[in-house]
Each structure stands twice: as C-alpha cells, then as structure tokens.
Amino acid sequence: MSQKQTRWAIGVLGTSGVLTVIVLHWMVFFWVPTEATMGIVQRIFYIHVPAWWIAFLGFGIVGLCSAVFLWLGDERLDRAAVAAAEAGMVFTTIGLLTGPLWGRVAWGTWWEWEPRLTLALILWFIYLGYFMVRRTAVNPEQGKRFAAVVGIIGVLDIPLIHVSVTWLRSLHPEAVILSAENPMNLDGSMGATIGVGLLAFSLVFASLFLARYTVAGYERELDLRDATLAGTRAVEG
C-alpha cells in the first residue's frame, strides 16, 4: 500500500468512525428506550461494553503478534503489536472511566475492589508496563522482546476478566450479551445500539491502529538511516 493510499485509508476509517460515534450518541440519548431496572444510567452500557470489547481485541492482537514476533523476529509484527497496544490502551481507559460512572449510581460508590474491576485495572497496568519496558531497556531489540513477553502475559488476564463475575462473587452484573445460558438477551433497539457502538469503536480502532503502524514504520526507517550515517561517519573518521 502506497503512502497516499495509507493516508486515504486512515482518513476514511477515522472519519467514518467519528461519524458513527456521533450516530451512537444520538441513539443512546434520543432513540433507545430506558432500561426498566437500572434506569437512565444503563445507557452507559452502550459505550462501556463496546469499549471493552475493542480493548480486548487490541490486546488479543498484541498477544498474537508478540508471540509470532518472538518466533520469527519480523519487525512488522512488533510494529503491529505496538500499534494495537496503544489503541487498546485508549479503549481500556474509556472502559475504566465509564465503569465508575455506572457504579456511582448503581452501587453508590465510584470504585469497588471487586474481582472484575480489579482484574481490568491490572490489565491497564500490564500494558502500561509493556510501554515502559520498551522505552527503558538499554538495548532496544532486547526491550522489544521483553515487551513481547509482557504483551503475551497481559492477554492471559482477559479470560479471567470475562469469567470473574461467574466464578467469583461480585457486585458487577453478569454477562448479558455473552451469557452462556441466555446469549443476546437484549431488546431489538438495544441490540442495534450496541451493534452501532461496536462498529463505531471498531472503525476508530482501525484508524488508530493503521496510523500508529505507519508512524512506527517511518520511525524504523529513520533509525536505520541514522545508523547508516553513523556507520559511514565512523568509517570516514
């Protein structure tokens, strides 16, 4: 894909994502009915849940690309892992911020150290550590490999987050959409809204991922160019 095509794809994905996010918010505030039990606070569900799905998607990509990078050593896989990690952190942060808004009304407190919330916060810190390992390693190549290991470890936290509300006593409500006993237990308009939310955040994620992957490629080219120039100057000197 040429640079022009890449910029065009990033622009189309980003613009489509922003427009779909606007549609999502219109549906949340003006179209979808208010849930009978929890009331208006339940509307956060349509932002909170898709954000976490996309965060898990992003970190799943990190884990997969990191594992194959350790096997093959292909720099493109490392760039893909970094791009997915940064985009995943954006949506993890959205999930962690919208959760307390829901909890403040539902539980009467902004935060509880209950299993799912705690594991979700641990996931955020694991991937913060992913970036710190990359940036603080003395040897950049070694830092990439250490970070890849951290990325793989972080993925192991995702299934624990999912099953925590089933296996452990928790304030957090059990799964509604991915419930094993009654999947997709949603009114039609609620299902449509959650679907638009997932589409909107998927488009935004794709644009962020592609943009960061492209920038990482440019950074790699500059590093190689600087290394070549340094080597040339050393020989001339």
Task: Please give a quick description of this structure.
The chain has about 240 residues and is mostly helical. The protein contains seven helices and no strands. Helix 2 runs antiparallel to helix 3.
Can you tell me about this structure?
This protein has 237 residues and is mainly alpha-helical. The chain has one domain. It is 79% helix and 0% strand. Helix 1 packs antiparallel against helix 7, helix 2 runs parallel beside helix 7 and helix 4 runs antiparallel to helix 5. It is globular and about 60 Å long.
Provide tags for this entry.
mainly alpha
Radius of gyration: 21 Å
Mean pLDDT: 83
Beta-strand percentage? under 5%
Distance between the first and last residues' Cα:
39 Å
Poorly predicted runs are none
Number of helices: 7
Number of strands: 0
Main β sheet profile? none
Topology as a string of helices (H) and strands (E):
HHHHHHH
The portion of residues assigned to helices is: over 70%
